[in-house]
Amino acid sequence: MDHAPSPDSGFFEAWAARLRATADRPVVGILLRGSHARQAATAHSDVDVDVLVGGAPYAARRAYFAEHSGRLTHVSVAARDIRSWVDRLGEPADWAFGLPVTAPARLLWADPHWRNRIDLPVLCQPADEPRLEELIATLGKVASARDAEDPLGARLAAADLARLCPSVLRLANPSVRVVSRRSAFAAALDLPVAPAGYRKDMLRCLGLRPGSIGQLWAAAARLVTGTLPLIRRYAAEVAAAAGPDLADALLDGRLDRYVTQLGRPAGGPPTDNREPAQVPAPRTGQWVTVSVPDEPVTGDHPDQPAPPDRPSRLDPAIVARLRRTPDGLVAAVVRQHDSGEVLMVAWMDDEALHRTLTTGRATYWSRSRGEYWVKGATSGHHQYVRSVALDCDGDAVLVSVDQVGAACHTGQRTCFFTELPVTGEVTS
């Protein structure tokens, strides 16, 4: 990038003095913001200045052009009353995709009485609340525009939905702070805990990828349907923001039913907007979701694909202790951590075991589909891992989990719900 030197101190001091002299209200402080305050200015960057004034609530903008180093420089001045400016720091930034902001600032001048309150090395603004209600309502607007064959309405609503989605997903993600609109956009696209295909669908909804109105609807619907299971465990935060009924609807499945209902065009049959997605490798200590249905994994499948032939990040000390089947797998027996109830049996390769150990989400290798799957990624019946134990022979692991909902694909709590008759006599 073409970085240009920031104007020297004399330039800023001269502008601070000019703005103080020409202000129509008493000035209490002048701050430099934006790329020049971040020392990231380019040859085309504006100079952004906040002029803080005393008195009644007031806001105005002025634009100037100044000579600097033989070039014209745009000076953008925002004049605000000091109290509303301070209050605004307690509100989410409207450009930050719901993420918290820590933006560098530089004090150019301050009245001594106000200096301690406004001499801030960074301007911090909180994250937005999880706006789940608005997210669902906006998906309804996309559905209405789809049924009315209104491409413009659909694109406007889908863009609004994409801007809301990170505020909801933030509940399930590591904390991140942003310094600019550009960094907020990048952070919103790179959330590590997100629905399958999230980045592609976000770009489509924001109008940065082409697509028909049907593709736009499918992208918006995937964002919402993929987000709901990821945030169920944060229902208390949803309740605090939007009330207990919305949180209850998140937990009892009413929201999922409502979104499914939106997917049915007026007078038309139900639609299925799912599509296969590539499986991204998770970062250490984090997890991702994959669009793979929960399925039983039992019996022998010698003709099914083996796990990918690539190095795993599993601890070499654990690797050395494993005894695998010819297709590189060990059996995973899954139980409820507190009751000991056996829930299911699945298979893991080295990488699936690594992901299970480092992400806290039970991850398996599907022999029938030839891909990894995270339990609950599509059903919402998540398994949060409490402990993993290796058996004495190294050919099986015992995974103790906190099971949310049903473990079995049939909807039963456990896969072992069919009792077989035992007729042999037991003798002591």
* CATH topology assignment of the largest domain: Four Helix Bundle (Hemerythrin (Met), subunit A)
CATH homologous superfamily descriptor of the largest domain? Nucleotidyltransferases  domain 2
Number of helices: 14
Major beta sheet, strand line-up: 3-4-2-1-6
Contiguous uncertain segments of 5+ residues? 269-307
Largest sheet: 5 strands, mixed
- CA gyration radius, whole angstroms: 28 Å
CATH-scheme architecture of the largest domain: Up-down Bundle
Total beta strand runs: 13
SSE ordering:
HEHEEEHEEHEHHHHHHHHHEEHEEEE
Silhouette: elongated
How large is the share of residues in beta strands? 15-25%
The helix-and-strand class reads: alpha+beta
- Kindly state the mean pLDDT as a whole number? 84
Which oligomerization state do the chains in this entry correspond to?
single chain
Amino-to-carboxy terminus distance: 82 Å
Look at the structure and give the CATH class of the largest domain. Answer: Mainly Alpha
What is the count of structural domains?
Answer: 3
